Amino acid sequence: MTKKGNRGEIILMKKLLIFFAVLFVSVMSSACINNFAIQELNIKAKEYLDKGDYDEAIKRLESSVDLDGTIFESRYNLAVAYVNKEQFEKAVNQLKEAIALNPANPDAYYTLGVAYEGEASNKVINKFPEAGIETEDGAEKPAETFGTGIFKNLEDAQFAVQKLDESIEAYKKYLELSKIPEDSEKVQEHINDLEQDKNTYLKEIDAAANSAQGE
User: Fold this and answer.
1) What's residue 25's pLDDT?
2) H helices within 27-153, ranges in order?
3) Long-range contacts of 77-83 (CB under 8 A, 24+ apart)
4) Which is it for strands 140-141 and 2-3: parallel, antiparallel or unpaired?
5) How far apart are the first and last CA of the chain?
6) Residue 93, helix vs strand vs coil
7) Backbone angles phi, psi at 198, to 5 degrees
8) Gap between the Cα atoms of 164 and 133, Å rounded
9) Total-model pTM
């Protein structure tokens, strides 16, 4: 199925385009015996990412992490590759490891916000239910959903709210650590959008609860 009018998905893709060109980072030199190999793997992964070959990029970065899991850049870059591949849960796991290694890096929290947002977006069936859901043959038909049709079920709605909360907190941490004034307004505006989305999802949950009580 393809979705019509999915603003959440569009916003996510815009954010990806904004940060991918700047957030893939080079491995810093260190005394690690495997550092040269790790640098080469990260450089090659960046080349594959630029070509859109995310699978090959992930292979190199996973090898880099296997060589030394204590290198922030390798774990961070692997998370960036996972986000490109829309493997958001894996990205979150790598970013948590990266942040444990370098908790003062603002970009890690920004990317974490994107990954959490991606997890939430994956549960959205149709951002604007009145637009309908388009099938592969182009015909529109109603989906099996609850509430107004944004989510398939209550569990997905609750999951999306949780992930948006985590995304908002990650973006706020980015703003706390980032020293780039021109980013602040854009990120704050996006946080406001996410707050509105979260409130919409909460209304869906409340409506479903009230409906169940009335039965």
Assistant:
1) 62
2) 35-51, 54-67, 72-84, 88-101, 106-121
3) 77/24, 77/25, 77/42, 77/45, 77/46, 79/111, 79/115, 80/20, 80/23, 80/24, 80/49, 80/111, 81/45, 81/49, 81/54, 81/57, 82/58, 82/115, 83/16, 83/111, 83/114, 83/115, 83/118
4) unpaired
5) 32
6) helix
7) -60, -40
8) 23
9) 0.80
| Residues whose CB is less than 8 angstroms from the CB of residue 164 and which lie 6 or more positions away in sequence, other chains included | 116, 117, 120, 194, 197, 198, 201
Give the number of other Cβ atoms within 10 Å of residue 118's Cβ: 24
- By the 8 A CB rule, do 77 and 24 touch? yes
Query: Position of tokens 């290198």?
Result: 71
pLDDT of residue 99: 97
Identify the bridge partners of residue 3 per DSSP, sorted by sequence position: 133
127: its two tokens = 């951002």
Determine the Cα angle at 170 with ends 165 and 43, to 5°: 135
Given this model, what pLDDT does residue 50 score? 86
- The identity of residue 188, as a single letter, is Q
| Residue 15 near residue 88 (C-beta atoms within 8 A) | no
Gyration radius of the chain's alpha carbons: 19
Does 14 score more than 50 pLDDT?
no
Single-letter amino acid, residue 5: G
pLDDT of residue 66: 95
Mean pLDDT of 71-96: 93
Q: Mean of the pLDDT values across residues 116-135?
A: 73
Please compute the mean of the pLDDT values over residues 134-157 and round it to a whole number: 68
* Token pair listed for 165: 């909360």
